[in-house]
Design a protein that fits this description.
The structure is a homotrimer of 345-residue chains. Chain A is of the alpha/beta class. Chain A contains six helices and 40 strands. Chain A is flat, with a radius of gyration of 27 Å.
């Protein structure tokens, strides 16, 4: 696909600066772009790269475009515009609908005529697959599950029985939706399984990363709302509810029955323990553990920063006696107070 | 299935209170239950839900049943009784034994006549599959592995060669049993692989979560004892041994050769480093790292709790100078001691 | 395979001590070895096991061999020698090349004649598969990907389109290479996907653990250099670059665009945030979070050690007031200084 800079400006509500007839055939980074690529600069720390880029055009803010002599697409939000331009050039390829001869599709499943079921995938009875759905190889869609229109399952994705996904979702390889929640009752020394009979309900425009797992609810459902983005290797436990447009980075764990608000971000390897409520617009930094509910928007943290191990060991050793240290400090304060009977400031 | 409250009381050693002929057809939560559902209350914080529940019957302790006017199943442990009742209503469905035409089963594998091998699963030579085993779609059982009676493999489970599982186990989608341990010998700058020739031995009634990985032993075996419950995305390294009825929450990592006792619980995202011994009845809180052996039962912790980031940053910055701070405190104490030569209290 | 001790000494540049005609047929641990096994001792804490071993021969250093009366293979580095001997006895089995009848191989893929494609694996158009490659069951190799000679994919491995692996790599079950990076642009409350169009480039002799995920680059490539060893359940984000012979233990997360040096080691559950540079020969301890670049080789840490929870709770509570405590200490110091106008030591 070849598009002029003028055409890109028209499509994405920007202004073409410089030669508006510049032909663009793809997107690239400032450093590696060629004369038919469009690049972008979102941060001024890349000004030196902008100075020497060979890109055919660059997406810039008005302020940054002022000093750039080459063809530019001027917009308010270059990162967003770049995403849109990249989506134009890298749309998911058109595919021929149908069912691969090696797929195993129950006669009691309902497939939209524009859907594709890839090789060796298995679609059980009662499944409903919407228009434009793409199911890659090696997937399993359990009985009575529903896959919304234009949703895509990459390779080896598992969607458990009765689970529901909305439209325009994307599931990366190895994602598991609807595994049993971790529910057991104590029976003397042993654990008795509590059957997990809820579902996972996933909204529209949700993305689920590779090998991420989302457990079905114990009785009621686990709920992932519209626009939620989940990175790789995340664990979402039973009966968790995640609000619209929350984004969670890799290796995070959310324990059972916790409710996360809308527009939150959770950094990589962070954790949230069970039965908590996290408000809208809460941001948790990487590696932090949340162990009580958060009612106010804002940034929350509990992570430590690696330092040379010898130094760290000394500090950490003191931490394991911090209560004693604090008592000693209080003792000193009291002693001084008694001896001097100072007037308060 | 429809059962009277009286029948439930008989089966599960409880007492029926109120109309013993109440018909029950399923389980549900207090809030969503209807007149043919049985619910339970395990914690008195849900008393307000109990007051308005529409459940046909509720599983309660004697004390809680006193004030409840509706039909009740009175037992000592409502949570356990609920698990048993739910198992009754939600037993794993009866399946027709056999081998799906798309499965690839070695003629040198031995399958019990009551077992099922699902679509696109691959069973290698020398495998032994017990009575009532259910193997879902897309699984791989490696050469000479043994799957005990009534064990179930959900979709896309991998059991490595020579590994052994006991009876009545449940493996969730994407679980990998018997991948190589992480064993290498330094060879100048490079790493030489140490072949991993042990197995994974899994006992009876073990549950393994989605995308959890259990490595085979280097020379001897990795051992998961009877009744162990593992949640999703857990890593069990080579030659780990886990004692009976220990339960481990999601995202935990156990490093090589560590031995975990019986009846332990390990919270989500906790870690245990290698070559340790953890006693029976040890409980490790979520997010805590265990770096030395634990000889005494009890609760162990090392996790921090997220707080507003600005406040946290100030505290964490001080932590990175805690050794200096402790030295300054000791200096003050000494100085005061010298100046006042106080008599000890 | 049966080999004399003398032959092992010849192959691995060691010295046979004792009966050089001792026949060896396998490797084992000191404690479980029999008369046809060779074992090794790398650490003198196992001297008591050495004293009673039934092994046919033992790999020892010169110093340790002095006091051992039985047949020994004397080398400088017993662990390395053991790895090599074990590789000899446990070489990956010879396999018959070809394509399993249930595999789905595009006519536009190019397979070396000595390669094997296992049951239910799917090889897309434009793929190039090198000599001696072994592809296990249930794998998916995306369009235009390249698999280097003698590389092995265990069961259910996914290699994304256009990704490249070198020679002699090993991918464990469930590994996902080339899933999309986690890239989104803010669009009001919503997230717009930034198409991820880079690749994953993997060097030679790389090992990737079970259910580990490596995302493709956003525009440029994610790069895993020669000799890198990755354990299970690791997340490598888009545009990360990892230097030669770095080894990373399980459950680690490396965030986007971070560059890790050569010969580093990263302990289990450690994390490295995005856009950092980590020098060569950096070692990060288990559970530590790295949040700024590291320019000097050495050991870095930030992990805490679980202790009895009651004690820990008191210390952790103080940590959340550490800034205040430090201010109080400074106040005391100032007060004492004022009151005594002491001469400095």
């Amino acid at each position: 696909m070849t598009v002029t800079l003028a055409e890109l400006a028209r499509r994405f509500q920007g202004k073409a600066r410089g030669n508006a007839d510049t032909l663009i055939e793809g997107v690239a980074a400032l450093q590696t772009a060629g004369p038919r690529d469009i690049a972008y600069m979102s941060d001024r720390k890349y000004l030196s790269q902008l100075a020497v880029t060979k890109a055919g055009a660059v997406i810039l803010t008005e302020a940054d475009a002022t000093n750039y002599p080459g063809p530019a697409l001027v917009v308010a939000n270059p990162h967003l515009c770049f995403a849109q331009v990249a989506q134009l050039f890298h749309a998911f390829p058109v595919f021929k609908p149908g069912v691969h001869p090696t797929a195993v599709v129950s006669p009691a499943a309902k497939l939209a005529s524009s859907a594709w079921v890839g090789p060796n995938s298995v679609i059980e009875a009662g499944v409903s697959i919407g228009e434009g759905v793409y199911i890659g190889p090696g997937c399993h869609v359990g009985a009575n599950a529903t896959i919304g229109a234009k949703t895509r399952l990459a390779a080896n994705v598992v969607i458990g029985e009765r689970c529901v996904t909305g439209d325009n979702c994307l599931f990366h390889p190895g994602a598991v939706i609807g595994s049993d929640g971790f529910g057991f009752a104590k029976d003397g020394d042993r654990w008795q399984k509590v059957p997990q009979i809820g579902r996972v309900q996933i909204g529209n425009e949700v993305e689920v990363g590779a090998n991420t797992t989302i457990d079905r609810g114990a009785l009621d459902d686990t709920v992932i709302s519209d626009g939620v983005k989940l990175d790789n290797l995340i664990q979402i436990a039973h009966n968790v509810r995640i609000g619209e447009n929350t984004a969670i980075a890799a290796c995070v764990g959310i324990a059972g029955s916790t409710v996360i608000g809308r527009r939150c971000t959770i950094g990589g390897q962070a954790g949230v323990t069970g039965h908590l409520e996290i408000a809208d617009d809460v941001h948790i930094t990487a590696g932090s553990l949340v162990t009580s509910s958060i009612a106010q928007p804002g940034v929350y943290s509990a992570s430590l920063k690696a330092e040379p191990a010898e130094k760290w060991r000394r500090n950490a050793a003191r931490l394991h006696h911090l209560d004693e240290l604090a008592r000693r400090l209080a003792g000193l304060e009291e002693k001084l107070q008694q001896h001097f009977e100072e007037p308060k400031n």
